[in-house]
Design a protein that fits this description.
By secondary structure, this protein is α+β, with helices and mostly antiparallel strands. The chain is 22% helix and 29% strand. Strands 1, 2, 3, 4, 5, 6 and 7 form a seven-stranded mixed beta sheet that branches. The radius of gyration is 19 Å and the shape is globular. It starts with 23 loop residues before the first helix and ends in a 28-residue tail after the last strand.
C-alpha cells in the first residue's frame, strides 16, 4: 500500500461520485489497508425485519511519532472527509438509501503505537460527523465510542435516532469484531446505522416520561 501523502495530490469532486467500486485514489491518500461491511437482519412480527449495518476502514496512523503538542488539524481536514464518504456510501448501499436509515453511530480505535486523540481526531470534528450526518439525512449529534485497540477487539457501537435523539426506542448498539485490526500503527474508523428501533422496545419515551427527581427516594419500598 502506498504510504499516505507521499504521492502527488490532486483535486477531486466526490460529492456525487460513488466510492463503492472506484476508490484507488482515496485509498492511496488514506493509507487504506482494508474496508469491511457487516449487515445483520432481525426478524420482526410487524416491521418485517430490521436491518443494521457497520462500515469500517483501517488506515495507517498519519500522526505516528508526533508528540502530544502536535497540531492534528491539517491531517484531520484531509482524511476525515474521505473516511466519511467511503463509510457513508457503504452504509447507504447496505441499508438501501438514506430513507431507510433511522439510527446511527460512529467509533474509532487507535493502535497501541498511537494516541487516543488520534482516534478522536478522525470522528469528533465536523469533517467527519457533519458529512456522515448529511449523507444519512440526519440532524442529531452522532453518539460514539472511541479508545485504544488491538487485533481481535470486539467493539460495541452505540446508536440513537438520527433526528429524534429523545426517542428511546432507537437507543441500541451493534457489536463488531475486528479480527486483524487495528495494528499498532493503524486506526480503525467505523460508522454504523440501523433501519429501525430495538426489536421489542417497550420502556416508554423521554418525551412522554413523567417528571422524576430524587424526591421518589423518600418513599422507596424495599
Amino acid at each position: 500500500m502506498t504510504t499516505p501523502f507521499t504521492t502527488k495530490r490532486e483535486t477531486a469532486d466526490l460529492r456525487t461520485r460513488s466510492t463503492l467500486t472506484h476508490y484507488a485514489d482515496i485509498a492511496a491518500a488514506l493509507g487504506l489497508r482494508k474496508l469491511n461491511v457487516t449487515v445483520e437482519e432481525v426478524p420482526h412480527a410487524s416491521l418485517g425485519s430490521i436491518r443494521r449495518a457497520t462500515a469500517s476502514a483501517v488506515i495507517a496512523n498519519p500522526w505516528l511519532g508526533t508528540g502530544t503538542d502536535h497540531d492534528l488539524a491539517e491531517r484531520t481536514e484531509a482524511l476525515a472527509p474521505l473516511l466519511a464518504k467511503l463509510l457513508s456510501d457503504r452504509l447507504l448501499d447496505a441499508l438501501g438509501g438514506a430513507e431507510q436509515v433511522q439510527a446511527f453511530g460512529k467509533a474509532a480505535l487507535v493502535g497501541t503505537d498511537g494516541e487516543l486523540e488520534h482516534a478522536g481526531a478522525l470522528i469528533h470534528t465536523p469533517y467527519f460527523g457533519n458529512l456522515l450526518r448529511e449523507a444519512l439525512e440526519g440532524t442529531s449529534i452522532i453518539c460514539f465510542a472511541d479508545g485504544r485497540g488491538v487485533p481481535g477487539e470486539v467493539l460495541r457501537i452505540p446508536m440513537w435516532h438520527k433526528s429524534e435523539p429523545a426517542t428511546r426506542s432507537h437507543y441500541q448498539s451493534i457489536e463488531l469484531c475486528l479480527p486483524d485490526a487495528p495494528h499498532a500503527t493503524e486506526i480503525a474508523v467505523i460508522a454504523a446505522a440501523s433501519g429501525g428501533p430495538r426489536p421489542h422496545a417497550r420502556i416508554g419515551d423521554r418525551k412522554t416520561d413523567q417528571p422524576v427527581t430524587t424526591e421518589i427516594l423518600k418513599d422507596i419500598t424495599l
